[in-house]
Amino acid sequence: MKPIVSIVIPFYNCSYVDQAIRSALNQTYPNTEVIVVDDGSTKELERLTPFMNRITYIKKENGGTATAVNAGIKRSSGEYIAWLSSDDHFHKQKVEKQLDYMITKGAKASFHNYDYINKDNETLLPFVGKRFSNAEEIYRTITRINPINGCSVMVHRDVYKEIGYFSPHLKFTQDYEMWCRMLMKGYVIYYLDEVLLKYRSHPDSGTSKHPDQMKREVSAIRHHYHHQIYQYAVQHSDKLKRIKF
């Protein structure tokens, strides 16, 4: 039997949520579950109505993206878990292609590239993410920037069982901290060189509205993790170079 893939969609007052849900439900891979976590929304709730008989709906008090994603992961039954922001959407073959890639590579975690779109779904920048050819490049890059779009990631459940969930103390960079934790523990995050995500730029996004807080969080993550990740990369350099994407 094909493994179940859970798609967790955290939702807070987002007018694009119906597009996100539709993209998750319309995957070519047949064995998926879609979990929408309502993080205390006060508007746009009517956009969920057409999908309620096809999704798992979780209502919680507002606590931020990390708490919503964590609630979805804990409720999920999938062997593999993906996360989709309510203002973005997946390519219809995202799950099928990414899961096949992970099984072929024996990967516990992976990510892929994405297009940058506007509020009207028009592509502003195609294939915008950084591209990688081996695992060492991931380790070297993440000590400078976060090259991994959170909604491009798929992770095997075992990873969360070992290293825990997203940090609720980080409101905007919880994904960056998670990737650092994974890499520090030796979980290579494999790169799939395909665009399987549309990542939306709009004025109401957290990235647009809270740049200063994001910078403070990034600085704290770097201070805590980057020396350890750099040391790991140095010690395992030959092995990481041999892991090709």
Fraction of residues in helix: 25-40%
Shape annotation: globular
Q: How far is it from the N-terminal to the C-terminal residue, by CA?
A: 27 Å
Number of strands: 9
* Assembly state of the chains shown: single chain
Q: Provide mean pLDDT, rounded.
A: 96
Low-confidence stretches: none
Largest sheet: 9 strands, mixed
Strand composition percent: 15-25%
Structural class: alpha/beta
Report Rg: 17 Å
Description:
The chain has 245 residues and is α/β, with parallel strands linked by helices. Helix content is 38%, strand content 22%. The chain has 9 helices and 9 strands. Strands 1, 2, 3, 4, 5, 6, 7, 8 and 9 form a 9-stranded mixed sheet that branches. Strand 6 and strand 7 form a beta hairpin. Helix 4 (135-142) packs across helix 8 (211-235) and helix 6 runs parallel beside helix 8. It is globular and about 50 Å long. The protein starts with a strand and ends with a helix. The mean pLDDT is 96.
Briefly say what this structure is.
The protein has 245 residues and is α/β, with parallel strands linked by helices. Helices cover 38% and strands 22% of the residues. The mean pLDDT is 96.
Which terms would index this structure?
38% helix; single chain; nine-stranded mixed β-sheet; globular; 245 residues; 22% strand; 9 strands; alpha/beta
